Amino acid sequence: MSSAEKFDAIVVGAGPAGSACAYVLAREGKAVLLVERGDAAGAKNVSGGRLYGHALKELGEEFDVTGGVERKVTREEIMVMSGDRSVNLSYQDPSFNREGASHPNSYTVLRATLDGWMASKAEEAGAILACGIRVDDVLEENGRVVGVRAGEDEVYADVVVAADGVNSLLAQKAGLIDEIPPHNVAVGVKEVIALPPNVIKERFRVCEDEGAALLILGCTGGAKGGAFLYTNRESVSLGCVASPEDVARKGKPVHRLLQELKMHPAVYPLIEGGETVEYSAHLVSEAGIRGVPGKLSRTGMLLIGDSAGFVINLGYTIRGMDLAILSGIAAARAVLSEAEPARVGDAYVSELEKLKVLPAMRAVRGYVDLLDIPRLYERYPQMAVELFMRLFAVDGEVPPRLLEVVKGTLRTANLSLWQLLKDVYRGIRI
């Protein structure tokens, strides 16, 4: 295309970040091309499936997401496993689905549905969606990004927005990131298992449009990682996420961990009778703020979503899609600010600050170190289930004092009181 026919913006990647960016720009009258490598938006996106509702408010009251989400999460659970034993902590909060709220605390989602829905909203606003196209490179003139190359085709724009996921090819081509080190990512494997809505309602103790989110620790054979289970309308998403370096040392691949998890006595009753309808795997950024590139832009180009490393893992809460949407909105607002081309990147960072993307990531930077403690994934789960076993088991003998129970539990888990206190102190300080 000639420079006279160029777009105002080319957004590469039709995930939540890319579609949110394209939607805001197109709504404001900009000529936007939204490019997706998959045959349809969402065809290549397979994340676990949870979206926090606060981010959608920034898209405006007119943005309707109801057709793209599954259930409103009102039950939060954390499960700790050791062997075939487990301990559950459950929190039920009906206010997470309160009447009159523009959005609940969080939704469960299936990415093929959500991404397709959000891309359609961008199209309705005026963006052009082009699927089945792989963008191979960026086009540069005088040190500025001016477009993209897809095969033999060249398309030009005032700004290119990279939303092509973890280990972004475009960000690498533009010199903004190197290949991601293995220790900065985790490998996630997920199955979507079909179950009737009435079965989901009974097994997870939720109402018609409500759902449950379950995070699991101690299921990775001592490797850094965990698992999740989310209820959808007519299925559950069950997945396992682990460090590729750790699982390689342990000699047990992530897909094997998932199969073992499915047969665990605490999990199997939740999925019994279900049929696997989807199986997928992908990379997950695990480095927090340290995984965010030093430069999120160069003249003519911005990085958003997973391409920029915007993921927060706190162990009990994992955020990715809400940060992706907010970063897409921030990029769109920066472009709409009409700043000089060389200053759009500064405007983007300013918007990320206003929308609390960067402040949120900085606030939890210490969790990366905390989650690197190997004891979290084997010894502490063992300690937790051992403690409850000793509390609830009755063998006819004289019950031990609580202090003796704690000491015995620590010995069984091969933990010292000093290690426990030190780790607790580290957790308090972050």
Q: How would you explain this protein's 3D organization?
A:
Strands 3, 4, 5, 6, 11, 12, 13, 14 and 15 form a 9-stranded mixed beta sheet that branches. The chain has helices at residues 16-27, 54-57, 111-125, 169-173, 197-204, 244-250, 254-262, 268-271, 321-336, 344-354, 357-363, 367-370, 379-392, 402-412, 417-429, and strands spanning 7-12, 32-36, 50-52, 71-82, 85-92, 106-108, 128-131, 137-141, 144-150, 153-162, 185-194, 210-217, 225-231, 235-242, 275-285, 297-298, 301-303, 312-313, 318-319. It has 15 helices and 19 strands. It is globular. Helices cover 33% and strands 27% of the residues. It is of the alpha+beta class and 430 residues long. It folds into 3 domains: 3-69 and 109-177 and 293-355, 3-Layer(bba) Sandwich (FAD/NAD(P)-binding domain), CATH 3.50.50; 183-285, D-Amino Acid Oxidase, Chain A, domain 2 (2-Layer Sandwich), CATH 3.30.9.90; 369-429, no CATH class.
What is the residue-mean pLDDT, rounded to a whole number? 92
Structural class: alpha+beta
CATH superfamily of the largest domain: FAD/NAD(P)-binding domain
| Biggest sheet descriptor | 9 strands, mixed
Low-pLDDT ranges: none
For the termini, the CA-CA separation is: 51 Å
Based on the structure given, which CATH architecture of the largest domain is correct?
A: 3-Layer(bba) Sandwich
- What global shape is seen? globular
CATH C-level class of the largest domain: Alpha Beta
In which range does the helix fraction lie? 25-40%
CATH topology of the largest domain: FAD/NAD(P)-binding domain
Count of separate DSSP helical elements: 15
Computed over alpha carbons, the radius of gyration is 23 Å
Number of E strands: 19
* Whole-number count of domains: 3
